[in-house]
Specification:
single chain, alpha/beta, Rossmann fold, pyruvate-formate lyase- activating enzyme, six-stranded parallel β-sheet, about 40% helix
Length: about 450
């Protein structure tokens, strides 16, 4: 009988943020692996113990991992996959299988090409949402069902990759148990890119999926092109539990789009306001069109409920580039209105930009840089396009030399140039200093310890 599962999260070796090429600095940002916490809750509800091993906290080699497998007496090892981690995960799978022979499963957004993990020694690849599937996999190893009867997996049969029909999505997300946060050392996680962050810090999700179909993204594929949202009451109960158990002071909501439904967003903010958690602050990720209806009222509600940081994935400020990735050309106009008002109300704001999208040119890049410098969010992050396995852009351009006329080394230069121009403006420097001094002066201690990293992040 399966008694214990060991989940393994490997550290990313490089960043797609061109200002921070190389291994991410985990003393600045280390986010807990939320998916493993959900799987742990589901398994432990079924009587299976779990252990989560996070390489961003505890460095380890394949040999170390093999020893850990023996030390914790686990029966199965599960790996998180992502495009940026593919080669590393495959190497660990191969080494661990050779050293121990233990059953290995893999899942996550990088499982699109599951055959590559199976060839490395993985026994089962979980495709998409995993809470139902992991229980079926446990049943298989307990001798209760055949692999071919399990939905949402890939496996090898006589050397050939077999992929079963997709697993049914969990229609009512409220039935899921809350993430098992006592399986991770919460105090080790933080995000000092958020100037107002205080520990204990956790991440949460209130929804799964995205209603949009951006060509560079794979989220809508992983979640089967469906958008589902938890009830407000269910989310508030999770916050209540996190406060009681951990005295959480900062929450990062990592939904693809937080509060997509205006009625839900209002009800959530009102519910949080009633709880009067005076020292609880939070951030969320929004679409550029979010809040455009009733912008002032919604921002006031967000502010009163403890939200202090709004992050927007704009990707480009050029209308033609936006249309090329199935985005609306009016997004920059609406986002400028939101950021202007949000800044007046005391919010920190962030814009995410991707250079190198289809038909990108030097002129479209300059246009986007000028937009960011004019709109003046608190943060602007400039990334070189990363081709995610399974994305529409990857399918269309994978056999071509490049996605646009601007080469990758030059795009790296543009990212650094954009960061320098954005962060070196006197008004930007003064604004950031005022925010830190008034909201969280202790942040300067972390900045001093990691001065070189923060300087690099600004393009220097």
């Amino acid at each position: 009988m399966i008694q214990r599962v060991l989940f393994v999260y490997l550290d990313q070796e490089s960043s797609s943020y061109s200002g921070l090429r190389g291994k991410p600095n985990r003393s600045i940002r280390r986010r807990p692996q939320l998916g493993f916490q959900y799987l742990s809750s589901v398994l432990e509800s079924a009587g299976v113990d779990t252990v989560i091993l996070d390489q961003t906290i505890t460095p380890f080699t394949v040999r170390d991992l093999a020893e850990k497998v023996k030390d914790v007496s686990c029966d199965i090892v599960g790996f998180y996959t992502a495009t940026a981690l593919k080669d590393k995960v495959r190497s660990f799978i191969s080494g661990l299988k050779e050293a121990t022979g233990i059953p290995i499963i893999a899942g996550g957004p990088g499982s699109v090409n599951g055959g590559e993990y199976l060839e490395a020694g993985c026994d089962i690849v979980c495709n998409g949402e995993g809470e139902k599937t992991i229980l079926d996999i446990i049943d298989h190893y307990n001798g209760k069902r055949e692999l071919a009867t399990i939905r949402g997996i890939s496996y090898l049969e006589k050397g050939e990759v077999r992929t079963t029909v997709p697993q049914d999505l969990i229609e009512d997300l409220d039935i899921l148990p809350f993430p098992k946060r006592d399986r991770i050392p919460v105090d080790y996680y933080h995000d000092y890119y958020i100037f107002t962050m205080r520990k204990p810090y956790i991440t949460m999700m209130t929804s799964r999926g995205c209603p949009f179909r951006c060509t560079f993204c794979t989220s809508h594929l992983f979640w089967q092109t469906r958008y589902r949202v938890r009830s407000v009451d269910n989310v508030l109960k999770e916050i209540d539990e996190a406060r009681r158990a951990l005295n959480v002071r900062y929450i990062a909501f990592l939904d693809d789009i937080f509060g997509f439904e205006e009625r839900w967003l209002k009800e959530f903010c009102e519910g949080l306001i009633k709880r009067r958690y005076r020292d609880l602050r939070w951030m969320c990720i929004l679409h550029p069109f979010s809040l455009r209806k009733g912008r002032g009222v919604l921002l006031d509600l967000l502010k009163e409920s403890g939200c202090d940081t709004l992050s927007f994935g704009l990707q480009s400020a050029h209308p033609e580039i936006l249309k090329n990735i199935k985005r609306h050309p009016d997004e920059p106009v609406e986002l400028e209105k939101t950021i202007t008002l949000a800044r007046q109300k005391g919010f920190l704001t962030s814009i995410g930009i991707i250079f190198g999208l289809p038909q990108e040119t030097h002129d479209t890049i300059r246009h986007t840089i000028d937009y960011c410098c004019r709109v003046r969010p608190t943060y602007a992050e400039f990334y070189n396009l990363e081709l995610l396995e399974g994305s529409e852009i990857t399918r269309v351009y994978q056999k071509k030399e490049s996605v646009c006329a601007v080469g990758s080394p030059e795009l790296d230069w543009w990212c650094k140039y954009a960061a320098r121009k954005f962060y070196s403006h006197p008004s930007q420097i003064i604004s950031i200093m005022k925010i830190i001094l008034t909201k969280n002066p202790s942040w300067f201690v972390t900045a001093a310890r990691n001065a070189k990293h923060f300087i690099t992040a600004t393009g220097y």
